[in-house]
Design goal:
It is built from 17 helices and 13 strands. With about 450 residues, the protein is of the alpha/beta class. It is extended, with a radius of gyration of 31 Å.
Length: about 450
């Protein structure tokens, strides 16, 4: 656990537990930005310490751990209680966001504490050092994990075999961006790093600055148009719009981060214009929204680590889901669906394809309730989908039978029979509108 300045005295067992929970919630790498026993001065000039302090992009955050012996209002003197309030009021006055837990909560409800930390700071908080406390060194020892070493070795071997393009597939958080940076570093030639958002471009630039501090790193997005640095990190959109500012042979190594987000047209422009000696695509998934196959572009997978393997090998922490309870249930939703169908069908302007087929079948089988017709129709569609490889879960079955029965009950209660409606054709509607307009 890499909590910064842990050499300061005063850490209690409860505070150590909090530091551990913080690292479990946000990752060990965030521990370097946590300051135990952080000094501050209250409004009366008294020197005090905050149990834990962090600096976020939104400002200063203080975490206080209250022990039963020293902070319980029913067990301490009035003076001590008033002094605790003064400390908290001073922090709030000075712009601190203050969050407090008891040591009992840390021991008996650690998962809840972690959930609350995520609620207060977000899933991926941007943390920085406090002013004047940034480490003097520009980098630190970066210890490669086994899968990263394997990926780098595979990339070297591929280049030795004469291959010039490859794909690294890794679960989010598994360190695939570091693989790209370190492989480019071992090649040692000029690099163009592309991503589809400003945040990813900045993240890439920071990775290069951290892992390859010997070279200059520039940005190319929005108003930033650096073309001279050894490494250029840019948005794929900005680079495409300004291709005339670059020569095709300006870069020897091209990295496309989260390459499944870029459109096929974007790929074509980039890959046909630039002439790097090696191109690397980074992605969490080879599946693209437009149906295109990434392997048709990148040809060879240098390394693959999906989320299941990443969790099993300890690269990522186990997935923990939190169920959010609401007072809205599925049956209530089916009632709204039935109401919506009633409102639009009663306008007699035609039905949607599914509902139109349901009504046609219903007219052929007038003795069967329309809700049952819906169940039969949706069952047939589900069966076809399953035969084509689709999945059928409990939600599917509830949707088939629940929606049908709710529709039947709802329509029967309001006396609505969709088979008796006389829907206007498109020709009738246009004729009616033209008569009103002219």
């Amino acid at each position: 656990m890499a909590v910064k300045k842990s050499e300061r005295a005063g850490d209690s067992g409860a505070e150590e537990r909090f530091a551990q929970l913080f690292c479990e919630a946000f990752g060990e790498e965030k521990g370097q930005f946590v300051y135990p026993q952080h000094p501050f001065v209250d409004i009366y000039g008294n020197h005090r310490t905050i149990d834990f302090a962090v600096m976020t992009e939104d400002g200063k955050v203080a975490f206080e751990i209250d022990g039963e012996t020293w902070h319980n209002p029913s067990k301490v003197s009035q003076d001590k209680y008033a002094d605790d309030l003064l400390k908290q009021n001073s922090m709030v006055f000075q712009g601190w966001r203050v969050f407090r837990w008891t040591d009992t909560q840390l021991t008996k409800a650690p998962d809840r504490v972690k959930d609350e930390l995520i609620t207060f700071l977000g899933y991926a908080p941007v943390l920085t050092y406090f002013d004047g406390d940034t480490p003097a060194q520009q980098g630190s020892v970066f210890e490669l994990r086994e899968h990263q070493e394997e990926a780098l070795a595979n990339l070297v071997k591929m280049r030795e075999e004469g291959k010039t393009i490859a794909l690294v597939q890794g679960a989010t958080g598994s360190g695939k961006s570091a693989i790209g940076v370190l492989d480019a570093k071992q090649v040692g030639k000029r690099v163009l790093f592309l991503a589809h958002t400003k945040e990813l471009v900045e993240q890439g630039a920071e990775n290069f600055e951290r892992l390859w501090p010997e070279v200059s790193v520039g940005r190319f997005y929005e108003s930033l148009h650096d073309t001279a640095s050894f490494v250029i990190c840019g948005s794929i959109q900005s680079i495409i719009r300004n291709l005339d500012q670059f020569k095709p042979d300006d870069f020897d190594y091209l990295i496309i981060d989260e390459c499944h987000h870029a459109s096929a047209k974007s790929y074509t422009k980039i890959l046909t214009y630039f002439r790097p000696k090696f191109t690397l695509g980074l992605t969490a998934t080879p599946e693209r929204a437009d149906g295109a196959d990434l392997l048709e572009v990148f040809q060879t997978v240098a390394h693959k680590l999906d989320i299941k393997d990443a969790v099993e090998t300890g690269v990522l922490c186990p997935v923990r889901c939190i169920r959010v309870k609401t007072n809205i249930d599925m049956l209530f939703g089916f009632q709204f669906i039935s109401l919506g169908m009633y409102l639009y069908m009663s306008a007699e302007q035609g039905c949607g394809p599914k509902d139109g087929l349901m009504i046609v079948i219903g007219k052929k089988l007038p003795k069967i309730p329309i809700g049952i017709i819906g169940i039969l129709l949706w069952s047939a569609v589900t069966l076809i989908g399953w035969m084509l490889g689709g999945s059928v879960g409990i939600g599917t079955l509830l949707s088939i039978f629940g929606a049908g029965f709710i529709m039947h009950i709802f329509y029967d209660a309001i006396g609505f029979e969709p088979r008796k409606l006389k829907h206007k054709s498109l020709k009738d509607t246009l004729k009616s509108l033209s008569g009103k307009c002219f």
